[in-house]
Design goal:
715 residues; 2 domains; four-stranded mixed sheet; two-stranded antiparallel sheet; 31 helices; 6 strands; 65% helix; 4% strand; globular
């Protein structure tokens, strides 16, 4: 641990007083980089020498002023370096300097030092064997054998301010050439721990972006966005004046006729009207057949997703031990287990699919390929415009949020959209090379679409009757559960992604995240429960259900217990207790089944008069527009969350749940909803209306062809 504390002071001292780079090293580092570093070191030496020689002598005060003026920039540059921080016992692994001070450095004698070789704020990731040190002390813990590398859970890093002419590779070579750390770390007279990667004490250097250079793709996307915005504005104005004309015609008691204009292009143009779309967004349906509480559940689940991703960003905090300590508090399991919010989305997806589609489906229609073609086409056309447009926006405008000292924004995730975005459009990004992902949260879109792809099997089964539907659903849930058990036993998987990332084992992370957590075949049980519940709600839609108060109370109690057990029973594991593979696999499989059963009763009670005040609250009108925004809000929230973290000029600091919700979750949810409102009005709703026009035409043509075929059959 002494090495851990001594590093930053040694770096600064060596940079000022160290020897010149060896010839072999100079050949590996760019000439411009070496020149700029030498200029900086020379300024530091000149300033210190002149101040020491002059002292308080009046005869050289003017000389001292000139030297001070010409070289003080070098002190500012050095001052912006990371220094030994407080809370080292809390494993403060982020030694951050002053970001703005670094970027404001100007050499008055060499303007190119500022304008052409502007200083950059970088992170040096230190090769400190924390895991090995801890394993040989009394505080032995299971952790990684090395902290080396950005993104590692125990990555220790300090900030440096160097000329921009130096690449990350140049800086890594330069820092390692100083050879400040000894190869072995002495814990006692008889105990040493070797460094990883030989004698390199800096295993990686990552520099923060200084400016944004727009390319042709950025300008193309900007033009398309501008055209879309202008189209929406013109459509809104046209819609406004059309409404005025319609009102005048009604006041004059003139008979209104649908003009050829309104039936032609003008009708499609008005789908971009923010006036009409805004009203649709705020409209509260009075249809008694609509399921109550769905929008409330959807929005609350979305806020749960946001809080879960914010919890993930606390890995970058300057007090990570405090964030780990909260796992000892049972109440925090609600936050840590935000994974159930995704299962809620899968459940609602199946619920709304069966409840809305089964009434339109008959045995005769189920045999018609056109019906299923439209079924799949509807899904693609309904989601893809808003989804695709945001991916394009994310890839081009997302880098604008990647500024500041913190390494929160995933620039690689944005860059991958240019290479692998086609996987998102095919909804296979959670299957084909899932590690190379674009918009990491979009795995949910792929998994949900894959479930939708196989949903006709279950819809047709329930169309034939409850028994076929239930039997096929149980068979698939059983198969999914057995596969879940096999994966946990085969790879000895941890239960949570947090635990997987703490192991540092890339294979374990890959299997748990890609083959279990993001896999449709593992996550499908809630979706099937949703389809089954949609069928139940459909069959009981016109029925009056009277239930004994005692039975209702017991069912509410059982539902609440199932939900609480699903969330809180993992507490001992998160606290550090050992669970056997059998126990881990059982929890992973059956907790989601229990959660789905709990949701099933909640939906039934809300819509069949068994919910009381809970039902009234969850059916309040304001939930409807919030629920409608969740699709676009889900797409954009990760960009918003990371951008808000990145605005700060200090490392994230965890205080507690209330502070996090007040300063992070609520602002993120509000900002996501504001962004989602814009995206919904610009892309989701206009293209949803265009899609409905297209499908209506296709269905009308199909209907006419069927009528002709019927006539031919009669003849």
């Amino acid at each position: 641990m002494k090495v851990y504390l001594f590093f930053i002071f040694s770096v600064c001292f060596q940079l000022v007083n160290g020897n010149e780079f060896e010839f072999s090293v100079r050949n590996l580092i760019s000439e411009k980089c070496i020149k700029d570093i030498d200029t900086w070191k020379t300024s530091l030496k000149a300033l210190s020498a002149e101040l020491l020689q002059c002292g308080n002598q009046e005869s050289c005060q003017e000389t001292k002023k000139k030297v001070y003026h010409d070289n003080i920039y070098s002190v500012y540059q050095l001052d912006s370096f990371g220094k030994i921080p407080p809370n080292l016992l809390g494993f403060n692994k982020v030694w951050m300097g002053e970001y703005d001070e670094c970027l404001d450095v100007v050499n008055p004698l060499d303007k190119s030092y500022h304008f052409n070789s502007i200083t950059q704020f970088c992170w040096a990731h230190l090769n400190l064997p924390i895991g090995k040190i801890l394993s040989k002390t009394e505080n032995a813990v299971k952790t990684m054998s090395t902290t080396c590398g950005a993104g590692r859970p125990t990555d220790v890093k300090t900030s440096i301010c160097m000329p921009r002419s130096c690449s990350e590779h140049d800086l890594k070579l330069a820092l390692n050439h100083l050879k400040i750390l000894p190869t072995p770390v002495k814990l006692s007279e008889n105990t040493t721990v070797d460094l990883e990667n030989g004698d390199k004490y800096v295993c990686e250097v990552t520099c923060r972006p200084v400016d944004f250079q727009p390319n042709y793709a950025f300008w193309i996307v900007t033009v398309i966005l501008g055209i879309t915005v202008l189209m929406c504005i013109f459509a809104t104005v046209a819609d406004y004046y059309k409404e005025i004309e319609d009102e005048k015609m009604l006041q004059d008691e003139k008979k209104m006729k649908n003009s050829s204009i309104s039936d032609g292009f003008f009708k499609y143009f008005l789908t971009f009207s923010m006036l009409t779309n805004g009203r649709s967004l705020l409209r509260i349906s009075n249809n008694p057949n609509n399921l109550k509480g769905v929008e409330c559940i959807r929005f609350i689940s979305f806020t749960w997703v946001v809080s879960g991703h914010i919890w993930g960003d606390w890995e970058n905090a300057d007090n990570p031990l405090k964030t780990i300590d909260i796992l000892k508090t049972r109440s925090y399991e609600v936050w840590v287990n935000a994974f159930f919010s995704v299962d809620t989305f899968f459940f609602l997806s199946g619920l709304m699919l069966s409840y809305s589609f089964l009434p339109k489906l008959t045995i005769q229609k189920a045999k018609d390929p056109v019906v299923w073609f439209i079924f799949y086409l509807h899904r693609i056309l309904r989601l893809t415009p808003a989804y695709l447009s945001f991916i394009v926006f994310y890839a081009t405008y997302g880098p604008l949020t990647d500024f500041g000292p913190n390494e929160i924004v995933k620039r690689e995730d944005m860059d991958n959209c240019k290479k692998y975005g086609w996987k998102n459009l095919l909804y296979i990004n959670n299957i084909y090379e899932p590690r190379k992902n674009c918009l990491s949260i979009s795995w949910y879109m792929a998994a949900d679409t894959q479930m939708y792809l196989v949903s006709p099997i279950f819809l047709i089964a329930f169309l034939l009757g409850p028994i076929p539907g239930i039997l096929i659903s149980i068979a698939v849930i059983l198969l999914s559960t057995l596969l879940n058990y096999w994966l946990f036993f085969r790879f000895d998987l941890p239960l949570t992604l947090i635990q997987a990332y703490m192991t540092g084992d890339d294979n374990i992370i890959h299997v748990l995240q890609d083959l279990v957590y993001e896999a449709a075949y593992i996550r499908i049980p809630p979706f099937l429960f949703g389809i089954g519940m949609g069928y139940v709600m459909l069959r009981t839609r016109n029925s009056r259900i009277n239930m004994n108060t005692g039975i209702v109370f017991v069912l509410w109690l059982v539902s609440a217990l199932l939900a609480l057990v699903s969330i809180f029973s993992i507490h001992s594991y998160n606290r550090g207790d050992y669970w056997t593979p059998m126990k881990r696999a059982s929890y992973y499989a059956f907790s989601r089944i229990a959660w789905s059963i709990s949701l099933s009763w909640l939906i039934f009670a809300l819509n069949r008069g068994q919910s009381g005040l809970i039902g009234k609250f969850m059916s309040l009108p304001f939930w409807t527009p919030l629920g409608k925004l969740t699709f676009c809000a889900y797409l954009c929230h990760i960009l918003i969350v990371n951008a808000l973290f990145n605005l700060e000029r200090s490392p994230p600091h965890f205080v507690g749940a209330f502070h996090t919700y007040l300063t992070k979750v609520i602002p993120s949810v509000v900002a996501s909803c504001l962004f989602a409102t814009i995206w919904t009005l610009l892309f989701e709703m206009p293209f949803a209306k265009l899609e409905s026009f297209l499908l209506q035409k296709m269905m009308s043509r199909s209907k006419k062809e069927n009528e002709k075929n019927m006539e031919c059959t009669k003849i």
